[in-house]
Structure formats: C-alpha cells, structure tokens
Amino acid sequence: MNLQNWCGLGPLYSCSVIFTFLGGCASEGGGLSSRTGTSDVDGGPPLVNTAGPTAGEDGSQCEDVVSADLPPAPAELMMVADRSGSMRLGINVRFGRNPIDRLDPTSRWDAVKNSLNTLAPNLNKLGFELGLTSFPAPGRGNCDVDAEPQIDFGASPKEITDALEMYGPPSGQTPMLQAINAASNYLKTLPKSDIPRMIVLATDGSPNCGHSVTQVETAVGILHGMGVDTVVIGMTLFTTEDATEAAELDNLSLNKIADAGGRPRPGDLRYYDVKSVDELENSLRGIALTAAGCRFVLPELRESAELVGVLLDDQEVPDDQWERDGDTHVKLTGQACDDLSTGKFLAVRAEFQGCKPEEPAETVELL
To answer: Which residues contact 33 (CB under 8 A, 6 or more apart)?
Structure first.
C-alpha cells in the first residue's frame, strides 16, 4: 500500500510530514524523510538527499540516511469491559485519604466507549480485529454475562459504534470471571491463526458475584498457556497511594491478574493505572502497538538499502533494543518496547541507507 493511501484514518493527532500510527497521516506524496534534506521525484516520496548524493560503484546514486514510519504488526484484541454500577462514576474519581478532584465528568464506561469509537477506525485500517464482551451483559441480571461476545472479531468500525450506542447505563455487580470464561470459550472456537490474540480487561475493581481473584488468575493463566495474553486496565475506586485496606485489595487483585495474564507492566503496578480519558486512550494505543510483541512491518525496499537504525519519534533506540525479525519486520525489545507500551509516542521510524538507480525513480511502499 502506498503511504499516501493511509490518509483519512481520522487522526488522533494532527497530520505530520510522515505517517504516525494510530493517528495522523502522510502528507500527500511522501512517506520517507531525509535527515539532511528531501527531494520529490516524479511526485513520489523524497528519496534523495539534497545535500548531495555520492556515486556508488555501479554508477548509481547513493542516498543519505532516510527514514520511514512503520505500521505495527496487527493483532486480534478482545475487550472484556466492566459495566458494573460503579462504572457510572467519573473516570478520575478516587476515594481515600487523598481523593482526586472530580474534574472530569466523563464516566468510566463512557470513557471506554469513547476510546473504542476513537481507535476502532484506525485499528481497522491497520488490519487489527476488535471484539467486546461486557460484564454484566446489557439488559441482564446483576451477575449475568452473555455466552458470546456482544461484538465479534470482524466487526466494522460502524458496527462497533452502533453496538456501543445500544448499551444502557452501567449497572449491577462485577462478574469478571464469567466474562473472562465467555471470551475464552469464544476464542477456542476460532481457527488457529498466526496473528496474535489478546484479551484487554478494563475494570474498576475486584471480581465478585461469588468468585475470587484466585479463580480469575487461574482463568487468565490458562489463556496465557494457550498463547492468549491478558493485559489489565485499572480505573480503581481508591487512590493507589492510599494505604486503606480497600485500595490495597484492588491493587493486589489487579496486579495478580496482570501477572497471571502474561503481559504485566514493569514496576509496582503491573496493570495500566488510568485516571483520565487521555490516559485510557494512551493505554489502549500502547496495548495495540505492542500486542504483536513490539513487531513492526518494514517497507518494501530495493536490495541495496540497509536498515541502520530505529527511532521512537525522534529518539534513537539503542542498538541492543531492536532487532530484525526476518525480512519483513523489525522488533523492539527491552526498555524500547516498555516505552512504546505507554502509548505516548507518535511513530516508530526505521532508518535506511543505500543506493538508488538513477532511472527509473522508485516509490517505497508499505506492506
């Protein structure tokens, strides 16, 4: 796909000179940039350094370093989202000794819906599949969960938006285990795929409805053994700094689930601790970008081009934190992958150096 075809994704950020994943688009005619200058060839991407290319042994022109934004390898993400009565509270409401001011009137549930509506079109364009299981199920009892997801993989962004609009206000208790089991049963019916699958659990507290954290740990541990990791987004009811029994219980519960799920965050809190709409969107973005193991798709390049570096936005990634993954992907590792998981970076860029034949001019295309 030519890079300029990425325009129209519906930016989460303003458009920049080159494509930024999950937001923004390429400026018309360009997906590559040069460190020291750019030059369009036949309206295509800027392939040549205006500072003056040097000649190769075969008489071709050798370029300076150019960079290309890389789209993430796609994944299938099943949201398992809390709809219990406490999800009516504002997303940044926290109780305890140091309560957070109620500055954002957006409820926890509306924040989840709005974030999915914002991200779904972009994820769809990038080849991701998105599904949703909510608990308790809309229009059901306090502890009831549908046997199948309300939104299956393969749903279009419009179908996702329409389904979310059909939901009533949050109510009931927190049948988390039943929801995890329902998502697990659905995933077991799907044919095997090379595309990674992941559960994203978004909740504001511990499970109830007669089930324990240990049972949820066991359930996500079984999924992890099947190759399906679970990441946890926590919109807890108590400040994480608060030493009350309730705060410690929620933090410990979500930490245990995140550890068992196979994708814990680094640090004391192994789940995404979310206190605002922006933090929720960043968390979902970071989860999507790292769902396939921090793997990114390389553009098709002529054989003479050499991959010489990787950047997060304009920050160079140390050589020991990225590696080639076959001929078609690059993989971030260690701290670089952890940094990317925050969702605060706009782009992963690969830097290339090589020689370009004088005729004809080529256009570099993304896979």
So the answer is: 17, 18, 46, 66, 67
Residue 344 is predicted with a pLDDT of: 82
What average pLDDT score do residues 61-67 get? 67
Question: Which one, of 135, 303, 262, lies nearest residue 207 by Cα?
Answer: 135
Domains and CATH numbers, the chain: 3-70+296-356 (no CATH), 76-290 (3.40.50.410)
Cβ neighbourhood burial of 138 (10 Å; 0-12, 13-18, 19+): middle
Residues in the chain, overall count: 367
pTM for the predicted model, two decimal places = 0.78
**Contact (CB, 8 A) for 65 and 147:** no
* Phi, psi of 94, rounded to the nearest 5 degrees: -135, 135
Strand partners, 85: none
Q: Are residues 30 and 18 in contact, defined by beta-carbon separation less than 8 angstroms? A: yes
Strand-pair category, 54-55 with 348-353: unpaired
Q: Which long-range contacts (CB under 8 A, 24 or more apart) does 290-293 make?
A: 290/72, 290/337, 290/340, 290/341, 291/72, 291/75, 291/77, 291/128, 291/196, 291/198, 292/72, 292/73, 292/74, 292/75, 292/195, 292/196, 293/73, 293/196, 293/331
Residues in a beta bridge with 7: none
Q: Mean of the pLDDT values across residues 68-95? A: 90
Q: What is the pLDDT of residues 97-153, one digit of tens each?
A: 454 545 557 899 999 999 999 999 999 999 999 999 999 998 888 999 999 999 999
pLDDT in tens, 238-252: 655 555 555 566 788
Instruction: Let me know: does 351 contact 307? Beta carbons within 8 Å.
Output: yes
